[in-house]
Amino acid sequence: MTDVLDEITPDDTTEAPRAPDTVNWRRESAEGRLTLWLDCEDTGTNVISEAVLRELDTLLDEAKQAQPDVLVIRSAKPGGFAAGADIDGFADLRGEDAVKMLRRGHDVLDKLAALPVTTVAVIHGTTLGGGFELALACDHRIGIDGVKVGFPEIQLGLHPGLGGTFRLTSLIDPVEAMQMMLKGSSAHDRKAKKLGILDALVPERHVDAAVAAAASGELEHEGGGFRASALRTRAARSLAANRMRAESEKKAPRKHFPAPFALIDLWEDHGGDAAEMQKAEIASFAELLDSTTAQNLIRVFFLRRRLKSSGGREDGIAHVHVIGAGAMGGEIAAWAAMQGKRVTIEDVALDPLGETIRRATRVYDGKHLSGIEKRDALDRLMPDPDRLGRARADLVIEAAPEKPGLKEDIYAELTDAMKPGAILATNTSSLPLASLVDAAPDPARFAGLHFFNPVSKMPLVEIVSHDMASTETLDRLAAFTVGIDRLPARVTDYPGFLVNRILAPYMMEAMLMLDDGHDKAEIDRAALAFGMPMGPVTLADQVGLDICLEVGKSLQQGLDTPVAAPPDWLRDKVEKGETGKKAGKGLYDYDSEEPPQEPADDPDQGVIDRLILPMCNAAAECLRKGVAPDAETIDAAMIFGTGWAPFRGGPLHYARVRRDVPDVLRSLQDLYGDRFAPDEGWSDLG
């Protein structure tokens, strides 16, 4: 939290009584100012639900009768104004039911926009989706330092549906507005002010003065500028729309992601007429809601929430000590400190400790922390060359190189150093916990805490159990993961654990395809066309061919269906130092070529099947072996741990929808060998 948000506490806001006949709003009236505090019942986060809007409708009627000088809408939640619309409320709606619900919501926001008194939204923290649309319906928006506004609906396969499409494009430069909606990007406080979304950006202590300025007509809005006027004609919009379509097609092909193109069509056809754009927005949103893409992406939203709910509440971890200041250890330390934990970090050399601080600064800048927030996070992150944190930490995270002997030596040193009750977690990605547990100071308080690189961008963390790990330890680690804003996936000790076990065939099969004469760019572009965030050849270079070689070797044993063996030339490249992007040369030569970024227009389905179906098969194996508790955890782990084509719903969901995966695997087995043999678990999946 920023220090500004700390000023906004429930004690400040909940003194206002609940408005009569409402459970989501508080009402406060003083000296010509009526303030409606949004305070959704039984939750720490506001969402814009049908009940919230229905209650607001009644309150607006009362406000129209009362005729205050100014109506202010604020949030009583310290974390932000509103996280968006209530997805539970519309996920199952279809057709005319969806249209009716949307019209009711539009009627309420139209009533707010037409209210014959000055209306001001005072917004702080997270202000997204439906919450942003509520703010846009007001005459003025006053932002409190640290506010973040945006429309993430595109990530659900949708576009704004409560007036955002026509209100934002009318308020600011329409091309900027379209880019925000097409990318699902957020505008942080100063950018939002510069764009014209905010009429004022102030600290909490100046809010009253800013509201008074709005009430007296002294708060002016700058408008959309010259480009807004230039784009009033359809011909002018068409030129911009065609450029937007071309850019969208590169990143999200229309056949997989219809929402960006529906939004562009909306603006091109009706951007000069708010009333017509409103009608078209409602119809378009309802149609998109019924699409396979939107239904799968909404499913992903619920998968995220499900993972988060598995974390519990209390972790009892205030101090984290990280052993190993390499790329992973440094990012883990930086992220934990950013999320409020006290962190110490040690390494055998001093230079990596200095790089940890530099890395943390880059992470914090990328996350748009204010100067005060960044200072406080860096104050919590302490290089510890003397290893004093070992004895004080509630959680010790070992992030040393993947060498069993080295890890065992570290654990031996920790046996008498760690305080009673402290947990030791290893970030290993390839070593079985069964081979390390005997060296741990207390096997019951030892487990895997497997982060994904980069920690600041990859939300998943595997909580890896073993036979002697206590339930309390695993529960605390899951709660810790949620507490640092990551998603815990509970998995068992298995070669590659869950994500790497499923992902490894993707990269190793690509290497065998290179042996078969396939072009590396063709392979990558086919994977991109399927929806993977990165082709397997590019991914191997990104991970490092040395690591791919070790993972490939480690997965040759202990699996029912082994991963393809690493080819001899991979070992040769590693020995020559051609280990991928970090070395400037791997499967691609980064001095002379760049991996493809655009998907293939007409990909070879045979190439896609060779890359994707072994992952589905591995997922079936992991489900059958109990590596994860259920199919939903497996799908979620692959989406949040690797970016696996989210609009397809995850590897097991994709296989269920496709239905012919075991048959195609048998055909591939006949062509290429037993690594494609369908897992026996398919019979249970239906």
Automatic annotation (TrEMBL):
Occurrences of domain 3-hydroxyacyl-CoA dehydrogenase NAD binding (ranges): 319-493
Keywords linked to the UniProt accession: Fatty acid metabolism, Lipid degradation, Lipid metabolism, Lyase, Multifunctional enzyme, NAD, Oxidoreductase
Catalysed reaction equations from the record: a (3S)-3-hydroxyacyl-CoA + NAD(+) = a 3-oxoacyl-CoA + NADH + H(+)
Biased composition regions of type Basic and acidic residues, renumbered to the chain: 569-581
Gene3D superfamilies (alphabetical): 1.10.1040.50, 2-enoyl-CoA Hydratase, Chain A, domain 1, NAD(P)-binding Rossmann-like Domain
Record-linked SUPFAM superfamilies: 6-phosphogluconate dehydrogenase C-terminal domain-like, ClpP/crotonase, NAD(P)-binding Rossmann-fold domains
Disordered: region residues: 562-604
Designated name of the protein: enoyl-CoA hydratase
